[in-house]
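Handoff note, outgoing to incoming analyst
You'll be picking up this chain. Sequence as last confirmed:
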Amino acid sequence: MPDEPARPLWRGRTLAVVGIVLFAFSLRSAVASLSPLIALITLDFPMPAWIIGLIGTAPPVCYAVFGILTPMFERRLGLERLAVVSLAVVTVGMVVRGFAPDAIALLLGTALIFAAVGVGNILLPPLVRTYFPDRIGLMTTIFSTTMAIATLMPPLIGVPIAEATHWQFSLGMWAILAAVALVPWIGMSMRAQAAASEAAIEPPSARVFERMWRIPLAWGLVVGFACGASIAYATFAWLPQLLVDTAGVTPAIAGALLALFAAMGVPASLLAPLLVTRYHATQALFAVAAVTGLVAIAGLIFLPQTLTWLWVGMLGLEPLLFPLTLVLLGLRARTHEGSVALSGFVQSVGYAIAALFPVGIGLMHDATGGWTLPLIVLAAVVAASIPTGFVVARRTTIEQEWERRHGSW
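Most recent structure output, in case you need it:
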């Protein structure tokens, strides 16, 4: 597809830039702010294991379910109004969670948040594609890096703030940012409605999402996204225990190494989208993710007590497939409806696959009593991404693939 002529980022799009940044930050801070406070919350009321388990497995499940539903919602409301609804629900969910008197209320608020975040995840790539067709790489870099920083901040400051005040304040304060994020999107929604009233806009077809199942490029993006997300969710769930068991580190050091794994997402989010849009480095980035992932897993299997930090840091580069796929969602669609459908399809199926891995890795560990088989399975996941790089690197779109195979879009 031809490159869009670039124009200054802020010219006529200041509200969109601010809105996308605040939207991205609110989505991730809402998700990352709860788990560091569980120990403090249990001092006020009991948290049954089944509720903690549901909270842990809910994100990818909600993302998968609402990834399927979001294109339908978007057809009814439009991108901007749906962004407003998503942020409003996130805000309400965080308020409910912040004032939760018991575990059930905490679970209810968390469910609202994850449902809305599932919608927001799908909206971000099409929003970038709509407002910044000439700056897809830059804006994907901005919002994916914002998400990485927003994932790191709550674990760093949440507990100190809770200890200085109360866990309810620490948990509920993020609702303020979500409420602030509503402001630009209310303005954008009003603009979009005014523009729609002046021009006849054809509504997206409900059949577009169904076409994704028959497009190899869409499936290639699913595999890439699923590989990155599966490694990330499995690592966040089990890396500390794995390191305690195999590397002999203390729980505190294991936690610091998990933070190192998460921190590697920041440079990946900064570089991957720009390298793809400017230098078409899709295949090279897939190769980097595969090589570093496989070397890291081999190190954790054969030399876990030697250079442990290196293996963890290298493993942290494998999820660069996440920002890489996000920028490709904007580049591999030519139309608005194609962008929404592709984003919904890739993220819903990808998250559904990723949701299996935290549980599956735990079951394999329990069955074998060790970590070798789980690590071999994760190595197979990394290897599965290698051929995908050749599929998604082709500079084509889902619309063009459909037209070659099935006729007019």
